[in-house]
Structures are given as C-alpha cells and as structure tokens.
Backbone:
C-alpha cells in the first residue's frame, strides 16, 4: 500500500515571516515612543487671562471659565493679569471662591506697569496662592461703599466735643440731648459698620490663609490704605515683584504651593503660555451687564410689545421687543439692583404709554416721567460710576420716551382725522354705473367691484348712481344721471 504524504503549503513560511516582521515593527515603534516620552517630558502649561477694568459679572465669568479650562488642561499654573479699580462685591466673592477651591495654583499678577489692584482687586490678590506685582503698580483702597450714601463716621467724645453742660455751656445743651444725638449718629453708622466689619473679617481670613500681612489687609478695608509694589514686597503683602510674566515664571519655579488637594511644587521654567482671549460670551455679558444698557433694553422691549399690540401681525416689533425685554431682565438679575427701582421704572414706562390712550392732558405722562427718574435713581447705588445711573442720563432717556409717545400720538390723531380709505365706510359717497338689471336684483359696478344695489327709483343699465347707505351687503343708492 502506497502512503501519500501531505503536500507542504508554499504560503505558510511567507505568512509567518510577515507576521514576525509586523510584530517587530510595532514593538520598535512603541519602544521609540516610550523613549521619547521618557527623554523629553511634556512642556508645562501656564494659562493666563487678562482682566482690565472693573470686576463685574462678565469679568467674573471670564475668570471662572479660564480656571475651569486650566483645570481641564492640567495646567501647572493659572495667572490672572489684573488691572482694576475695583468692582462689585458679589462678583469679587465669586472669583475668590473659585480661587480657593481651584485644583490648579493661581497667581494674581498686577500688571502691566502702572496697573493697580484696588478695592475688589486687593481681595483677589490676597486670595491667590501667589501674589505678584510689577514695578510702578499699587494695591489697596479696599473700603466698601455704603449703599444709599456714605454717612459721616461717628466722632468719639473728647474734651473738645464733650457735652457743653459739663464745660459750663448753655443750659439747653443737656447731657441727655447729647446722648440722644450720639445714639442717632450711632444708629446711622450701624449698617456701614456691619459692611466694613464683614469685609475686614473676610480679607483678614484670606491673609491668614495665605500667610500675608494681616495688618495692612485690615487697614486697606478700614482706612483705604494703599501700597506701592516695593512697599508691598517689603511688608510681605505680595510674594514677588516681576517685570513681566516671563520673569514671574522664572521666580516661582520650584515654589511649593498648598492646594485643597494637597501640596504641589511648581515647574514653570520654560513653560508654554496659553493666553485665553475674551469670547463672544464675555463681550455680550460685558455689554448687557451695564445698568444703562439694561435700562435701554427694558424700554425697547416694552415699546416693541406695545407697538406689536397696536399693529397685530407685524411680528418683528413683538419678537425684537420680547428678546430685548428678556435680555434686560437677565441683566438686572446679574446686577445688584433694587427691585423697588425696577418696579418704579416699569410703572413709569406704563404710565407714559397710558398717556397715549387716556385723555389726562399730560398728568399721567408727567407722573410716568417722575416715576421713571426715581426708579433709575433707586435702581443701583454701588459707588462705582460705571454701575450707577446719572440724573442727566435718566432725564435724557425719559425725554426721548416722551418725544416718542408724542410723535406716535400725533400720527394717530392725524390718521383719525383723515377720511376712511378702506372698508365698508369707504363706500359712502362713491359713484358707480348700473351694470345689470334683473327681476329680483340690480347690480352696479362701484370701485371695480359688482355690488347689489337698491334704489327707490327705477334703474336702467348705464344709470350713474351714488351710494347713500349700506344694508348688509346691499348698497342703498340714488340715481344721479340717467344712462344713454
């Protein structure tokens, strides 16, 4: 019996060799990448945002989003280059809370040369893990502003200001009267003292957390004290004085920073700097988070809806007015406004609109102007010029509103005096020609349309008639000329 051996496959050695070569190539590629990663570590990343202007809801949102981006990119350091005269307390506290909870070290750098970190900026500087300034910059003047006015501080009793009765003064100036006056002054200062003490305790806690000068921090709040960059460095208010961001990164390299997640050492030498530019969101918030813009948006919104109600079906005034109204209300929600002021503004605008419909001879409109101006005055009182409405602005806006209503009213009155040019009423007095005469109905051509007419006289085709009255869809006419 003949035994047949299996025939060897000619493909097997080739396939095995190709697989072996592929495996060796992959292994070599992985080894090269691993070597590169070990030999050349990734360059550290520093994320920077630049804030130039008041600390507002827009700038607070910009800083917070920059912090979130730095945490997402696992940046080595987040730098706030700051130049601000101050800002809103609510926005400042939002920024401070995010800095305290940040997983990325935060450095506030007061720059460029000539910049300042006043008021709210001082709080942000104290809250940061690293505080730095450029030469010729300053910080401080962090006293809070009393809402509703700044009362005079209470004067302590001294021999010169002691009750006159104790110094041989007039008999009417009794200690009881002086005590009553002192009690009234103290009551007037209570709210200011509460705000000042709260701010002083807040910045003192930040100074204790970061190991910075507590005495100056409290003096900046209570006495509006300020310091230059060199003075702040000598007094341990800031950690570094640097000419620019590159100089700062060289100085902080190797510094140990305590975070909520633990302690980290900064490696910022030759770091890659990524500057986050303000986007459309920041620009939109900066635009609408302004009391003047918010007020104009509110008025445009109300007038747009008012015009849509007068002319149903136009759509554009109603849609635009509704959008502006929502943007205005959103801006008021961002700003520290008094809702009493908002209510007075709405009342004033409503009264000015009502003046166009009610025969009050200007009384309702004048009341609307007064309510509008008072509402604008009560709307905000922050002590920051950019966030307070001035009387000239309010008066100008109110006068523009009154002028708009006068123009609308004059146009409406003129249109009311004109004869009707459309509808059934327009048929009165119109002339036409009898087109056909039937057994039961007579039709005439009037205005290019065929109307059924009725006349006390007998009509013939071609007669000229004039419309005297309407009876439903039938015109009552008179014959003015017999037909040919």
Residues:
């Amino acid at each position: 019996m003949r035994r047949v051996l299996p025939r060897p496959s000619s493909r097997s050695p080739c396939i095995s060799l190709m697989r072996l070569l592929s495996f060796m190539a992959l292994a070599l590629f992985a080894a090269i990448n691993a070597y590169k990663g070990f030999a050349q570590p990734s360059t550290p990343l520093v994320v920077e945002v630049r804030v130039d202007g008041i600390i507002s809801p827009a700038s607070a949102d910009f800083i917070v989003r920059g912090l979130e981006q730095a945490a997402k990119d696992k940046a080595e350091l987040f730098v706030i280059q700051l130049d601000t005269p101050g800002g809103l307390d609510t926005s400042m506290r939002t920024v401070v809370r995010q800095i305290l909870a940040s997983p990325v070290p935060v450095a506030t750098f007061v720059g460029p040369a000539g910049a300042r970190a006043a008021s709210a900026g001082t709080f942000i500087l104290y809250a940061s893990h690293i505080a730095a300034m450029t030469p010729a910059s300053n910080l401080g003047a962090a006293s809070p502003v009393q809402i509703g006015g700044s009362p005079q501080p209470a004067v302590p009793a001294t021999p010169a200001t002691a009750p006159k009765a104790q110094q041989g003064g007039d008999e009417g100036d009794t200690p009881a009267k002086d005590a009553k006056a002192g009690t009234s002054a103290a009551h007037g200062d209570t709210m200011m003292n509460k705000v000042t003490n709260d701010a002083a305790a807040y910045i003192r806690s930040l100074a204790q957390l970061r190991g910075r000068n507590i005495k100056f921090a409290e003096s900046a709040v209570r006495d509006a004290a300020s310091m230059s960059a060199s003075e702040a460095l000598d007094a341990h208010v800031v950690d570094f004085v640097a000419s620019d961001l590159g100089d700062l990164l060289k100085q902080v390299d190797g510094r140990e920073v305590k975070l909520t997640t633990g302690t980290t050492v900064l490696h910022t030498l030759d770091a890659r700097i990524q500057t986050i530019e303000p986007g459309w969101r920041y620009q939109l918030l900066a635009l609408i988070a302004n009391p003047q813009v918010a007020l104009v948006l509110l008025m445009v919104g109300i007038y747009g809806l008012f015009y849509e109600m007068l002319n149903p079906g136009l759509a554009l005034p109603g849609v635009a007015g509704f959008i502006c109204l929502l943007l205005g209300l959103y801006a008021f929600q961002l700003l520290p406004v008094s809702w009493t002021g908002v209510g007075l503004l709405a009342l004033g605008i409503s009264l000015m609109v009502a003046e166009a419909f009610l025969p009050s001879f200007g009384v309702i409109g004048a009341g609307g102007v007064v309510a509008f101006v008072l509402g604008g005055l009560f709307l905000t009182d922050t002590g920051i010029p950019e966030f307070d409405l001035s009387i000239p602005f309010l008066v100008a806006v109110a006068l523009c509103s009154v002028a708009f209503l006068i123009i609308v009213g004059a146009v409406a009155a003129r249109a009311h005096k004109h004869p009707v040019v459309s509808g059934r009423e327009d048929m009165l007095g119109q002339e036409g020609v009898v087109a056909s005469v039937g057994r039961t109905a007579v039709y005439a051509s009037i205005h290019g349309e065929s109307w059924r007419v009725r006349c006390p006289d007998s009509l013939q085709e071609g007669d000229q008639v004039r419309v005297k009255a309407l009876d439903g869809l039938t015109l009552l006419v008179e014959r003015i000329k017999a037909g040919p």
Q: What stands out?
A: The mean pLDDT is 79. The radius of gyration is 40 Å. Residues 454 and 471 are 9 Å apart (CA to CA).
